[in-house]
Amino acid sequence: MRYGKYRFIASFLAVPLLLYIVFVVSPYVQAVYISMTDWRGFSAERNFIGLANYAELAGDTRFWSAMWHNALLLIVVPVVTLAIALFLATMTTLAGRRGSVGRGGVAGSRFYQIVFVFPYVVPLVIAGVLYQFFYNPQAGLLNGLLRLVGFEWLARPWLGDTTFALPAVMAVLIWAFVGFYFVVFSSAMKSLPSDVFEAAVLDGAGRVRTFRHITLPMLRDSVQTSYIYLGIMMLDCFTLLQVMLPDGGPDRSTEVVAQYLYRMAFTEGRFGYASAIGVALCLLTLVLAVVVLRMDRRARVEF
Fold first, then answer.
1. What is the pLDDT of residue 99?
2. Which residues contact 211 (CB under 8 A, 6 or more apart)?
3. By mean pLDDT, which of 14-23, 130-139, 249-258, 294-303 is the weakest?
4. Whole-angstrom Cα distance, residue 114 to residue 109?
5. What kind and span of H or E run contains 99?
6. 90: three-class secondary structure by DSSP
7. How distant, in Å, are the alpha carbons of 57, 78, 92 from that of 175?
8. Mean pLDDT taken over the chain
9. What are the chain's domains?
10. Are the C-beta atoms of 71 and 287 separated by less than 8 Å?
11. Cβ(94)–Cβ(215) under 8 Å?
């Protein structure tokens, strides 16, 4: 029965493994090699320069400024997005009626679920165009509403202000992604055992205590995975910013690493240096995933 077992398995794995090497591993290897050259992108000439691009990158203030913007996005957007998504999922899935804790959520949960998910359906490119009009200093809806309610002193060119440009983009990202994680957490909550919540109700636990001591510990894996996924997106964040602020914002106050990489490659023609930026960003992404996975080593909650 076992004769030729490994050859049989290898015959099935050979083609998928070959495709994986060609289309996944090979581009990574090529990117690392190109990052060690002075390739300009539009010629066959490539001079190997070793780690010179990485040495330049270490002292590149513009790169570190872009990295700081990514760090702010990485800290603020996932925390706020996941907190809002957890709150909305709890209220529409487990909150119960009249302040109780149970199944079904608050009154009108079905309608709220549709409303909360709708922003995620809108592509980021479309969202970027819409919010450009929303933040428009003259005819934008935001400044118009502020003037309408008597807060005209708060009106400002949101995307043209170095202080508010990046927070304005963060607000769009939070608006865009809350719906997806609302669905993730709602699905996870529906799989939790109902007898645990029934016991909490009998013990007199309210919504806050039940969420803190029962719901959140049992959702730890979902929250952790969601943070990694959203954090990786915040380390990129190219699409929305390239639509809303393609020049990096006022005084480059919103430029992220992916935009800087794009500019180095396709504006200045420094493909070798751009590849070094890409490799550095890839390594930082891997470090983020490892750190988040190792932050919480407590025993898993089984149910």
1. 46
2. 90, 94
3. 294-303
4. 9
5. none
6. helix
7. 33, 12, 18
8. 87
9. 40-295 (1.10.3720.10)
10. no
11. yes
Among 80, 89, 98, CA closest to 175 = 80
Q: Which long-range contacts (CB under 8 A, 24 or more apart) does 19-28 make?
A: 28/282
Note the maximum CA span of the chain.
Answer: 83
What are 134-148's pLDDT values in tens digits? 999 888 899 999 999
Closest CA to 118 of 71, 208, 178: 178
pLDDT-derived band at 72 (thresholds 50, 70, 90) equals: very high
235: its two tokens: 């380390």
pLDDT at 253 over 90: yes
Highest average pLDDT, of 8-12, 95-99, 125-129, comes from 125-129
- Tell me the whole-structure pTM to 2 decimals: 0.87
For 208-227, the DSSP string reads HHHIIIIIHHHTHHHHHHHH
Tokens of residue 285, six digits: 């992404």
Give the C-alpha separation, 51 to 27, whole Å.
Answer: 19
